[in-house]
Amino acid sequence: MKKLLLFSFLILAYHASFSQAEITEHEIKDHILFLASEKNAGRYPGTKANRTVVKYIVKDFKKQGLLPLAKNYKQKFKARLRVEKGQPEKPLAKTCNVVAYLEGNDPILKNEYIILGAHYDHLGMGGPSSKSDKKNTIHYGADDNASGTATLLEIAEKVAVNKSQLKRSIIFIAFGAEEQGLLGSQYFVDNPLVPLSQIKLMINMDMVGRLNTDNHVYMNGAGTFPGGVEFMQNLGESLNLTPIVHAGSVGGSDHVSFFKKDISVLGVHTGAHPEYHRPEDTADLINVPGQKQVSDYIYKALMTFASTNYKMGFIPQD
Predict the structure, then answer these.
(1) pTM above 0.85, yes or no
(2) 132 CB burial (10 A radius; 0-12, 13-18, 19+)
(3) Which of these, 37, 32, 256, 42, lies nearest to 132 by C-alpha position?
(4) Is the CA virtual torsion 236, 10, 112, 194 positive or negative?
(5) Does residue 308 contact residue 168 with C-beta atoms inside 8 Å?
(6) Cβ-count burial of 88 within 10 angstroms (0-12 exposed, 13-18 middle, 19+ buried)?
(7) pLDDT tens digits along 255-301
(8) 210 contacts 273 by C-beta, under 8 angstroms
């Protein structure tokens, strides 16, 4: 009962405190149409198209008033690209994470960080991770993961409008080279821009654009922080979603790199589909109203963790 009352209080506090700068379907769609365009050719690491996408993300972060966490917004690294079995290695590809932040206002809690992340890369023309027999065909990656990147940009915009309400600081990361083996997130945790001990939660969005008719939203790792399973379940239901919340089952996206460093995580997605890692993962199949609904859900969860005294702490999972 006490937990339910606390949940109700947090939601009421949220509604009372925040302005209504909206996450919009129009902007979600525009971001995805750009990211998953033919011109950007699957956003493969080391390519001109990949660099174009990085510039787009940096420009948007700057526009929203997000600050660079280091000298600039790019955390550069070199990625070892996957090759077909028996093929020679490719040269290391130059790519980067795009990192920005907003500082909290509480004199103590501002030294604690919540990370919101999504990978922006995809498979380019296919390669060993493709599930298609179509060779040298653009893999557009609209759901995987133009959808997560679009939600990252939209949530960052709304958080920026409400930054005066932040107690904890929020770091926004668009990860590079996730499809090559979680390389961007691994590079970040191996070369952190803030002490890892100060990162209290990493929320990752990977494939959030295909909400089904049952409104299923899947979450992994919710048991890695106090009250996470119950909180995400109750919040989702209050927003007319059907959360499928796992305490563990941390999954295979960028939040895994943080979990391995004993950092609490929450991986969010809307489920697998036949177009996964195939050229058919195109923008026309995105459920844009559904993605807005999921984006609002993640935003409200994020702001509860960042703007209240919500207790944080890592809880190991088997």
Answers:
(1) yes
(2) middle
(3) 42
(4) positive
(5) no
(6) exposed
(7) 999 999 999 999 999 999 999 999 999 999 999 999 999 999 999 99
(8) yes
CB atoms closer than 10 angstroms to residue 98: 26
Q: Could you tell me the two tokens for 185?
A: 């997130």
Lowest mean pLDDT among 83-87, 181-185, 193-197: 83-87
> What are residue 266's DSSP bridge partners?
203
Instruction: Supply 66's token pair.
Output: 């997000």
SS3 string of the chain? Answer: CHHHHHHHHHHHHHHHHCCCCCCCHHHHHHHHHHHCCCCCCCCCCCCHHHHHHHHHHHHHHHHCCCEECCCCCEEEEEECCCCCCCCCCCCCEEEEEEEEEECCCCCCHHHCEEEEEEECCCCCCCCCCCCCCCCCCCCCCHHHHHHHHHHHHHHHHHHHHCHHHCCCEEEEEEECCHHHCCHHHHHHHHCCCCCHHHEEEEEEECCCCCCCCCCEEEEECHHHCCCHHHHHHHHHHHCCCEEEECCCCCCCCCHHHHHCCCCCEEEEECCCCCCCCCCCCCHHHCCHHHHHHHHHHHHHHHHHHHHCCCCCCCCCCC
Cα separation, 156 vs 158, in Å, equals: 5
pLDDT value for 10: 53
Predicted pLDDT at 20: 52
Is the separation of the CB atoms in 303 and 169 below 8 Å?
Answer: no
Q: Which residues pair with 218 in a beta bridge?
A: 244, 269
What whole-number distance in Å separates Cα of residue 78 and Cα of residue 174?
A: 16
